[in-house]
Specification:
alpha+beta, 3-stranded mixed β-sheet, 3-stranded antiparallel β-sheet, single chain
Length: about 170
């Protein structure tokens, strides 16, 4: 490792630590020539993962592109700041754990939607509306109704019974 201060290649490792589950190693190094200490991060280079698009084109998997899409869906939502990054890491780990070198883009999309569904339902709907490119408002409504049904909520309420109050609370509707 080259010293960032003097450019000397002769450095020694002073301390080494594994960082979380991302297979990253943090190393504190010291230059033998000028005694400057600096930190390096090493990450295991994984095998290439290729995404096969619907039209048959192939692109190398881009974790940052995935994380960016997740971040957009979760913009201004009450989730942790690093939720999109963690979800992208989990999706990438799952894809790589399957051992395949090629994966369909639809599989990446499915995993992204599953993660968003767990994290935030509004973020999920935002992502799904773009990813699934709903044809009309009815298709979007069906997806929202599915989410309500899973939660056990009734999206319609008691509209059909006539028991709804209309007007100012505490006053009788005339």
């Amino acid at each position: 490792m080259r010293c960032p201060h003097c450019g000397e290649r002769d450095t020694r490792v002073v301390d080494s630590r594994d960082l979380d589950e991302s297979a990253t190693i943090r190393r504190r190094r010291e230059c033998q020539a000028c005694a400057t200490r600096f930190t390096t991060y090493e990450r295991v280079e994984a095998a290439r993962l290729v995404v096969v698009k619907r039209d048959g084109n192939r692109q190398e998997f881009d974790r940052e592109k995935l994380a960016s899409g997740l971040r957009k869906a979760l913009t201004r939502r009450p989730v942790a700041d690093d939720a999109a990054e963690k979800a992208a890491d989990e999706i990438e780990s799952e894809l790589r754990s399957q051992g395949a070198t090629e994966v369909a883009s639809s599989r990446v999309g499915q995993l992204a939607m599953e993660k968003l569904r767990e994290l935030d339902q509004i973020g999920y709907i935002r992502f799904a509306s773009v990813y699934q490119s709903f044809d009309d408002l009815e298709a979007l409504k069906r997806e929202v109704d599915t989410l309500f049904a899973e939660r056990g909520d009734d999206p319609i309420g008691d509209l059909g019974t006539g028991n709804q109050r209309v007007g100012t609370p505490g006053k009788r509707a005339e």
